[in-house]
Design a protein that fits this description.
By secondary structure, the protein is of the alpha+beta class. It folds into two domains: about 20-120, no CATH class; about 140-485, no CATH class. Helix content is about 15%, strand content about 35%. The chain is built from four helices and 31 strands. The protein has helices at about 1-45, 55-65, 80-95, 110-120, and strands spanning about 155-160, 160-165, 170, 175-180, 195, 205, 210-215, 225-235, 240-245, 250-260, 265-270, 280-285, 285-290, 300-305, 315-320, 330-335, 340, 345-350, 355, 365-370, 375-380, 385-390, 390-395, 405-410, 415-420, 425-430, 440-445, 450-455, 460-465, 475, 485. Helix 1 runs antiparallel to helix 3. It is elongated and about 140 Å long. The termini are far apart.
Length: about 500
C-alpha cells in the first residue's frame, strides 16, 4: 500500500515537473500565435497590403490618404492606435518567452522600426474590424513611359475627338496614345529643304532657311533671310512670310509676299518682341504677339498675313508684366473655337478676328476647351472663368486652397485638383454645379513633377517619376474615379 502511494506521488511529481519544464515552450508558441494575430492586424491597418518594401508600402498608403482631405480619413495612423498598441504589447510578451528581440522601451507602435519588426509576423488575414487604408491605383513600369514635349509650350488641339500635343502626339478619347504622322516630304537632291505649310488647295513651296523655292526647285528671288517667324502658302498661289532680313551690320523684320507673275512685295514689320518669344503664337494666317516695352508693359496685337505685304497689326488690348510660372498653358487650345493664353490676357477667335479678355495677373493658369467654350482656371486664389466668343465670365466656385504643389483645371462640368504630399499624388474631382459632390482618387505613391490638362471630360496628368527622368507617364483620371496609365499604341 505504501509502495502504491509512493509510485502515485512520484508520478505526480514527474508530471508536475514535466508541466513546469514544458511551460516555456508552450508559452513561446502561445505568445507567438498572439503576436502573429496582433501584428497582422496592426500592419494591415497601417500598410494596407503586404509587400517586400516597407517604404513602398508606406508611400502607397500616403497616396491613398491624401486623396481624402477631410476627417476622419486624415486620422491615419491614429485610427490604428488600438491595433498598434496591442501588437506592441504582444511583441513584448513574446520577447519574454524567448521570442523576438525586444524593441526599445520608448518604441512607438507607428514608428518605422516597430513596423519593420512587426512585418516579420504579418502572416494572417486581419480581423474584419480592422480599418484598412486606401492604396495607390497602379504602378508605373518602363513600358508605360513615353517621351513628350516640354509642357512649357504645350499646344493642345482637340481634333476628331482627340487631344494633340504639339503636333507630335495624339491622345484619343479612349485613352490611347499614338504618334502623329509628320510632314516628312523632302525635295529630291536637297534633303535639308523643308516644305512650307499651306492652306488647302495651295501650291507647295520649300525653304532651306535662307531662301524660298517653288516646287521645281527654283528660287523665288535673290533675297535671303536669317530667320523667320511665319511662312504660309495660300490657294491663290501666293507665299507670305515674316522674316528677319539682313543688311550691313543690321537685321530687321519684314513681310515678304511672293505672288504669281509679280515682283516681291515687302514691307517693314517689327513685332517688338524677340523672334523666339514664348508669347508669339501662330494660328493659321494670324500671328499673335506682344509689343512689350523695357518696363514690361505694352500691348497685345495681331496681324493677318493673308493680306500680304499690306498687312497691318491690330492692337487688341493692354498687357501687364508677364508671369514666369511653368504652370501656365502657353499655346493654343483649339476645338471648334480657338483660344490663346497671352499671359495674363486671353484671346478668343471670333468671326471677325479676335476677342480680347483682359484677365488680371494670376500665379497659375490652365486652359481647357471643348466645342466653342474654353474654361480658364487660375489660382491662387482659385478662380474659374467660362470663355466664349463674347468674352469671359466668372463661374461661382469655392476658393479651395491649392497647397504648395497643387494644380487645378476645369471643364464645363467638373473641377480637377492635383494634391501632393511627400511625393505622393492624388486627384480630387468636384462637380462644378455642386462642389460638395466630390470624389477623391489616389493616383501614385511617388512622382517628381506632375502637370495636368483637362480634355474630353477627363484629366490628363503628365507624370515625371524622378528629377532626371527624360520619359513621362500620361495618366487619365475620369470623374467617376477611374484611373489608368495611357500606353502607346
Amino acid at each position: 500500500m505504501n509502495r502504491r502511494w509512493i509510485v502515485v506521488g512520484a508520478s505526480i511529481v514527474v508530471a508536475a515537473a514535466a508541466v513546469v519544464a514544458s511551460r516555456p515552450l508552450w508559452m513561446k508558441w502561445r505568445t507567438r500565435s498572439a503576436l502573429e494575430e496582433a501584428a497582422s492586424n496592426a500592419c494591415a491597418c497601417m500598410l494596407g497590403r503586404h509587400g517586400s518594401d516597407l517604404e513602398a508600402e508606406l508611400l502607397a498608403v500616403r497616396a491613398g490618404i491624401i486623396a481624402k482631405p477631410n476627417p476622419p480619413d486624415r486620422l491615419w495612423p491614429a485610427r490604428c492606435k488600438p491595433w498598434g498598441e496591442a501588437a506592441l504589447a504582444a511583441h513584448a510578451e513574446a520577447a519574454r518567452w524567448d521570442g523576438p528581440v525586444p524593441l526599445p522601451a520608448d518604441a512607438s507602435w507607428s514608428s518605422r522600426n516597430a513596423l519593420e519588426a512587426l512585418r516579420v509576423f504579418w502572416v494572417r488575414d486581419p480581423d474584419p474590424r480592422v480599418p484598412l487604408p486606401e492604396t495607390r491605383g497602379f504602378e508605373l513600369n518602363q513600358n508605360k513611359l513615353v517621351t513628350i514635349i516640354d509642357d512649357e509650350r504645350l499646344d493642345l488641339r482637340i481634333a476628331d475627338g482627340a487631344l494633340e500635343i504639339n503636333g507630335k502626339l495624339r491622345i484619343n478619347r479612349d485613352d490611347r496614345i499614338e504618334q502623329i504622322e509628320q510632314n516628312t516630304a523632302s525635295f529630291p537632291g536637297h534633303p535639308t529643304w523643308r516644305a512650307i505649310d499651306g492652306e488647302p488647295g495651295s501650291k507647295r513651296f520649300w525653304t532651306d532657311d535662307s531662301r524660298f523655292y517653288d516646287d521645281a526647285g527654283h528660287a523665288l528671288g535673290s533675297e535671303w533671310f536669317i530667320g523667320r517667324t511665319f511662312a504660309r502658302s495660300f490657294a491663290d498661289g501666293r507665299l507670305v512670310a515674316h522674316v528677319e532680313a539682313a543688311a550691313i551690320e543690321a537685321t530687321y523684320g519684314e513681310i515678304w509676299e511672293y505672288a504669281p507673275a509679280k515682283k516681291l512685295a515687302r514691307s517693314r514689320f517689327e513685332p517688338g518682341a524677340p523672334f523666339t518669344s514664348k508669347s508669339t503664337t501662330i494660328v493659321d494666317e494670324w500671328m499673335l504677339y506682344k509689343h512689350v516695352g523695357e518696363d514690361g508693359a505694352g500691348t497685345v496685337a495681331a496681324i493677318d498675313f493673308s493680306r500680304g505685304a499690306a498687312a497691318k497689326p491690330i492692337t487688341l488690348g493692354p498687357v501687364d508684366k508677364t508671369s514666369r510660372v511653368l504652370a501656365r498653358t502657353y499655346g493654343t487650345c483649339r476645338a471648334r473655337g480657338t483660344f490663346v493664353d497671352m499671359d495674363p490676357s486671353f484671346l478668343i477667335r471670333s468671326k471677325t478676328g479676335w476677342t480680347f479678355a483682359g484677365l488680371q495677373q494670376s500665379i497659375n493658369r490652365i486652359v481647357s476647351c471643348d466645342d466653342d467654350v474654353a474654361m480658364v482656371t487660375e489660382w491662387t486664389p482659385l478662380e474659374i472663368r467660362k470663355c466664349t466668343e463674347e468674352g469671359c465670365a466668372l463661374v461661382s466656385f469655392p476658393r479651395i486652397d491649392a497647397g504648395r504643389e497643387g494644380l487645378f483645371a476645369a471643364d464645363e462640368h467638373h473641377v480637377f485638383q492635383v494634391v501632393r504630399d511627400d511625393g505622393a499624388v492624388g486627384v480630387h474631382v468636384y462637380a462644378l454645379a455642386n462642389p460638395n459632390d466630390a470624389k477623391h482618387v489616389p493616383v501614385l505613391d511617388r512622382a517628381w513633377e506632375v502637370r495636368m490638362r483637362v480634355v474630353a471630360g477627363r484629366a490628363l496628368l503628365f507624370v515625371q517619376q524622378d528629377r532626371l527622368a527624360t520619359k513621362w507617364a500620361i495618366v487619365s483620371v475620369r470623374p467617376d474615379g477611374a484611373v489608368r496609365v495611357i500606353t502607346p499604341m
